[in-house]
Amino acid sequence: MMSVAAPDTSLGVAHHVREARDRRATLRIAGAAHWMNAGRPTSALGTLSLSALAGIVDYNPGDLTLTARAGTSLETIAHAAAAEHQWLALDPFGDPSGTLGATVATASSGPLACAFGTPRDNVLGLEIVTGDGRTIRSGGRVVKNVAGFDLTRLFTGSWGTLGVITEVTVRLRALPEVEDTLALSIDEHPETVGALLVRLRAAAIAPLALELVNAPLARVLGLAETMVLLIRLGGNADSVRAQRAALGFAGGITTVPASMWNVLRTCEPEHAMVMRISMPPSRLAECWVAARHVTHDVLHDATPDPTRVARGARPTLMHGTVERGVVRCIVPAPSSDAVDRAIAACATLPATVIFERLPDSAWPRVPHALHGRLAPRIRQTFDPDGILNPGILGATP
Amino acid sequence: MAHPLSAALREIVGPRALLDRTSELLAYGSDGLPTYHSPPRLAVFPETRDALLAVIRLLAREGCPFVPRGAGTGLSAGALAADDAVIIGLNRLKAILSIDPVNRLAVVEPGAVNASISRAAARHGLHYAPDPSSQTACTIGGNVAENSGGPHCLKYGVTLNHIAELEVILPDGDLVTLGNANGECDGYDLLGAFIGSEGCFGIARQVTVRLSRNPEAVRTMLADFMALDAGARATSAIIARGIVPAALEMMDGPTIRAVEASIYAAGYPADADAVLLIELDGLAAGMDADVREVERICLECGARAVRIARDEAERARLWQGRKKAFGAMGRVAPSLVVQDAVIPRTKLPDVLRAIHSIAERWDIQVCNVFHAGDGNLHPNIGFDARDAEQSDRVHHAMREIMRACVDAGGTITGEHGVGLDKLEYMPLIFSPDSLDAQCRLRDVFDPAHRANPGKVVPVHACREWHMASAAR
After folding, report:
1. Which residue pairs, CB below 8 angstroms and at least 24 apart, start in A190-195?
2. pTM of the model
């Protein structure tokens, strides 16, 4: 039977990890348990939930740093920081009740990565219980720190396969004085998109986010029936006004509610296949076409057929982070044949493809993430018995 | 006696790229922190990336330890070689191989000088953002090894945030690529783990850096205060206001006077107890509002005056005083040690007071010149290393300063690295288990402990060492 433990201290976490190790039992680590279908299926027998290990430990607004237990939700942090006119500038996809620990463990980010980077750029220090049950600390609570080897970066994005993150210190930022979210409706033609991106790159703007969304997603967001470019501007009033003026060349730009960004974060349906395709930012338009090819033409094994949507088949949602050259595709409820065709097509792309969610049966067809000679050894070093999230990044040799 | 590998290495790099005479090697006995001195027996300077690979493979076959060295400007005694360790000088591998202005990337060799990358990128309106004070000499390979910072890291981030990909030669001679310049990365963040590993995980033989757009507008301001505390309060107030300056630097009275008495005189008011050098950059629109706000905050915190550089010449002059402050202190005393602790910004007034009282107690002269915006202190102590009693006092004072910073919730190094110099402080901030985890990560990259041995982690403080000695 599946056992679930939910310790409320890091000592408790260490105790459970040691006990599991002694029993040779395996553990699935869970935060809010929203993303359990992300990553590969694990073969873990028990669950170690961090939902009770929650709460802000230390928040000093003057230092713009915050330390919280891993199970603290992103919305709890957002709420505390907003009271001081600050924010944690990370907007990973998923419900805001998702946890800080899961965000860091999976290195998840969203459109704000355009200006503020990913978790690796925002995490200052960690407390971790490694797979052998020892509690260690990396980094610290200050904004600049090069003392010792950088375990903080190593554990960020390691999907719980090296240790259980129990506490996280992050860098906060002051909320912009003024914010403005703009939408620009565009023609989904590679040349049009490419030309627009070239002009955007040269424009006197410093966007907080610059996200391209396809027509089906624009419809979900209530924006338009076309492809849309979403632009998030921030700064003092003069700066935001001037940036908006600098976008005048595009014409037809409208202000839309900032709540758009939260809708975007939570738009993916339960049983979707989700993947990210990336190329250098200069080739975003090309990357977009490749992503559309894989998720539309290949999945539906046919030329694009607009009537399919009308008949009720749910279309693929796509959005691209312009500055980072990443296109994320959300395919609602694909058939298993279609998934196999898409995986095969991805393997031939001159791009980096990362799968976030797939049907369990499809994962064996995806190369595992612990390749090379170093990664498997690191896993072996910090979780010698392979008890934490076994299989989530692929089998270790 | 010649180093046993002297002849074999000469075969690879040629006679002009190898030093093995004591007199020639003296200069390689120290880095930028002259209180440590340990001349190597052999130094090689490969002139091609293939020669570098061949050197490392030979050393691997022979089980010989090595120490990578860039320009030798480091401030932690990290590039020193003991015993038979061979210095691998990377400063002749300085080519800028390509620049991709659209994706804002540059591919360079490890010996490329930091400032040369910005110079090469300038015609595209781009620059490489991290700017250590030694940027006209220090190399990108050294920056990667130390995860170097610099004044402009307050806004733009440190080396870690600006490296896209590395081609690394592991200590056993294997080549691996870390990171991905062409898209996202999956799996463990080995690029992040390598950056700041101080030469203990291998040698990057090719570095892909991210370039940043040159700002549309730059404003440099100088605010002077009659009390250190007031300058520290202004620092916190500016950041708390939500303005992120490109740089926010502080110099105390003794530093100001050392600079003003030197050839680097920058026109700082010599009677001030502190000056803040504040630079705002970014889009031109909205800049004036931020400048006015910074000025208002400084005056409100007790600044006597806030001067705004009128042109590029004045701006360069204000910066020169800051960047050459260490050099200016050469006039004050024959030896200089510099520390690099980081504290929470709001603790600046308390810790600066503590440093002052420690200096008085040990009767030493401390000059503070530092990155106030991110709480990264650089207390400098000028002294005479030939005077054993004075050196002893300096050492005690340094230790106390370090402890005060750690007690304030800080760390022991923000950008200079641990090297040899801060080994003794590592147990102040890390438990034996935490240090042991670092040792175990090193073991993955370098199981034979041949790359920069004896640096970064004090092996005797690790848990395993305690257990082993308890068993004896």
Report:
1. A190/A285, A190/A286, A190/A288, A190/A289, A191/A285, A193/A227, A193/A284, A193/A285, A193/A288, A194/A284, A194/A285
2. 0.96
Q: How far is B126 from chain A (nearest CA, A)?
A: 12
Residue identified by tokens 């004050």 is B332
Average pLDDT for B149-171: 96
Cα nearest neighbour of A177 on chain B: B242
pLDDT of res. A306 = 47
Partners of B18 in the beta sheet? Answer: B44
Long-range pairs for B148-153 at CB < 8 Å and ≥24 separation? B148/B415, B149/A144, B149/A146, B149/B371, B149/B376, B149/B414, B149/B415, B150/B415, B151/B246, B151/B247, B151/B249, B151/B279, B151/B322, B151/B371, B152/B246, B152/B247, B152/B279, B153/A144, B153/B129, B153/B371, B153/B374, B153/B415
Q: Are B258 and B367 in contact (CB under 8 A)?
A: yes
CA dist list (Å): A338 to A273, A349, B237, B276:
10, 17, 57, 62
A352 touches chain B (CB under 8 A): yes
Hey, what domains does chain A have and what are their CATH numbers? 53-174 (3.30.465.10), 178-265 (3.30.70.2190), 268-365 (3.30.70)
Please name the residue ranges forming H helices in A247-392: 260-265, 284-292, 299-300, 306-310, 336-347, 374-382
Nearest to B438 among A146, A148, A324 (CB): A148
Whether the Cβ atoms of residue B88 and residue B68 lie closer than 8 Å to each other: yes
Mean pLDDT of B248-271: 93
**Tokens describing residue A286:** 């090309």
Residue B428 has pLDDT above 50, yes or no: yes
- Assembly ipTM: 0.96
CA dist B275 and B277 (Å) reads: 6
A202 interfaces chain B, CB cutoff of 8 Å: no
pLDDT at A298 over 90: no
- The total number of residues written for chain A in this structure: 397
Asked if residue A173 has pLDDT above 80, the reply is yes
What is the separation, in whole angstroms, between the first and last Cα of chain A? 28
Q: Give which of B184, B197, B376, B440 to mutate to test A binding, by max A Cβ within 10 Å.
A: B184
With pLDDT > 70 as the criterion, what percentage of chain A qualifies? Answer: 95
Whether the CB of A140 is below 8 Å from some CB of chain B: the reply is: yes
The residue behind tokens 């003003």 is: B260
pLDDT at B332: 79
Q: Hey, is the C-beta of A5 within 8 angstroms of any chain B C-beta?
A: no
